[in-house]
């Protein structure tokens, strides 16, 4: 059977699945996952810069995002126990509801206190939101993988997740700036808290996926026995390394470096636009229009690429695009607040980031084992943030240091070029892993 015939046979199944309620649920859950992410990071940095906070402080405050890197530590609990208060909804949905409510509460708190009451209170509330959001991600990722009936549907749900996630980023990265310019930051953050209701509604409407305890070899008694606790905590990791051997270390290293350029530049992007002289309305309008187009095209291209040329080639292309467009931000330092140049850089950045995001999510989803879905995916999705989340805390220090003896905008330019170059190590690891995978497949023939 030819590849074309295989595609023709599969296409009706994929098209039919588009009408399934779980795809709509996945869109909404992706939105709920994406909504808090920037509100404790880049967007919060814009608010802080408006209040005169230093770049150094903004960079260090971005460390609240380390919760996303450490979520594998409590993922075994989420994998094996129902959440308090909402246990009747089932294991996955109970944790979704609890974390969504806590995110909303934290965002309301940030809107009430604001930077004018000091960074300590804002920092603590941001930690609450980041911790709850990262826990929500654990469960939503597990639901996405477990709810899929086959590999085609897994790819479809991954694309739906990315679309919902990107829609949330559009609101929290673009539209909120316009709202903040006309309504103020506190009202804007309260509106974001209200939007968490979309995720809550989706969770209530979602089905609870069939549990796959047998596939994991889970011990009866769950976490109540020593053996059950050891299986829940150690089992997912030992299973992962048994499956992939020493190559697992290369996988984790590549994943941890893959989004490093994007993570590093993140906290400085919004302060950069402000220091360039771009208005909130301009930044928000560009992101919400041509920036959205770039994201949608990137998602579509990433999905098509994964099917047509495979995981590793798609990862390599995504990494190249991501690195080049981040370095291209340096151009703005010399053109100034030229809207045409800003729009061009923005659409390219959104395309590259979305393409790379689909590539990495699809690849990581393919590596998990049923029964340990939540914990193993938490390990992988935490791994891709390890280095980046830590390094970005020093981003403000880097810009201020590079600006020493130069103008601030020249410091920004050097920073963005350096961030783009940090994609090279991951590129090398992608090439090595692709060769290892090719040899493995040849040996199996």
Could you explain how this protein is built, in words?
This protein has a single domain, classed as MFS general substrate transporter like domains (Growth Hormone, Chain: A), CATH 1.20.1250. The chain is 80% helix and 0% strand. Helix 8 packs across helix 20 (373-383), helix 9 (151-183) runs antiparallel to helix 16 and helix 12 packs across helix 20. With 445 residues, the chain is mostly helical. The protein is built from 24 helices and no strands. It has helices spanning 3-17, 21-39, 42-50, 55-61, 67-70, 75-80, 91-113, 119-147, 151-183, 185-205, 213-216, 226-244, 247-258, 260-276, 280-288, 290-309, 311-327, 332-335, 339-365, 373-383, 386-391, 395-402, 408-421, 424-444. The longest helix has 33 residues, at 151-183. The model is unreliable at 1-18 and 212-221 (pLDDT under 50).
Concise structural overview:
The protein is 80% helix and 0% strand. By secondary structure, the protein is mainly α.
Characteristics:
single chain; 445 residues; mainly alpha; Growth Hormone, Chain: A; 24 helices; 80% helix
């Amino acid at each position: 059977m030819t590849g074309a015939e295989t595609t023709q046979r599969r296409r009706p199944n994929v098209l039919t699945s588009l009408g399934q309620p779980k795809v709509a649920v996945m869109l909404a859950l992706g939105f709920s996952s994406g909504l808090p992410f920037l509100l404790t990071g880049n967007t919060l940095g814009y608010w802080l810069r408006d209040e005169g906070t230093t770049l150094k402080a903004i960079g260090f405050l971005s460390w609240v995002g380390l919760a996303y890197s450490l979520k594998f530590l409590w993922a075994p609990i989420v994998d094996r126990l129902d959440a308090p208060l909402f246990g009747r909804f089932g294991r996955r949905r109970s944790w979704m509801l609890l974390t969504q409510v806590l995110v909303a509460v934290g965002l309301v708190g940030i809107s009430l206190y604001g930077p004018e009451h000091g960074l300590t209170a804002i920092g603590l509330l941001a930690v609450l939101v980041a911790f709850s959001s990262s826990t929500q991600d654990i469960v939503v990722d597990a639901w996405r993988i477990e709810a899929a009936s086959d590999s085609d549907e897994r790819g479809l749900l991954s694309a739906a997740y990315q679309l919902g996630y990107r829609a949330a980023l559009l609101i929290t990265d673009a539209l909120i700036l316009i709202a903040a310019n006309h309504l103020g930051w506190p009202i804007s953050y309260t509106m974001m808290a209200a939007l968490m209701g979309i995720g809550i509604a989706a969770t209530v409407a979602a089905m609870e996926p069939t549990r796959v305890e047998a596939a994991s070899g889970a011990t009866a008694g769950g976490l109540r026995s020593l053996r059950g606790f050891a299986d829940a905590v150690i089992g997912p990791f030992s299973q992962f390394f048994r499956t992939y051997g020493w190559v697992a270390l290369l996988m984790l290293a590549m994943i941890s470096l893959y989004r490093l350029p994007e993570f590093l530049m993140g906290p400085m992007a919004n302060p950069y636009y402000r220091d360039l002289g771009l208005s909130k309305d301009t930044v928000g309008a560009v992101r919400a229009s041509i920036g959205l187009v770039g994201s949608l095209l990137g998602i579509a291209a990433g999905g098509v690429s994964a099917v047509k040329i495979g995981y590793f080639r798609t990862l390599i292309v995504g990494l190249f695009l991501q690195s080049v467009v981040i370095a291209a931000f340096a151009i703005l330092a010399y053109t100034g607040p030229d809207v045409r140049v800003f729009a061009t850089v923005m659409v390219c950045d959104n395309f590259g980031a979305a393409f790379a995001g689909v590539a990495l999510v699809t690849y990581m989803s393919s590596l998990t084992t049923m029964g340990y879905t939540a914990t193993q995916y938490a390990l992988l999705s935490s791994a891709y943030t390890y280095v980046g989340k830590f390094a970005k805390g020093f981003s403000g220090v880097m810009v201020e240091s590079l600006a020493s003896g130069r103008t601030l905008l020249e410091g920004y330019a050097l920073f963005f070029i350096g961030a783009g170059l940090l994609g090279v190590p991951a590129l090398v690891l992608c090439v090595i892993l692709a060769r290892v995978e090719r040899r493995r497949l040849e040996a199996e023939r």
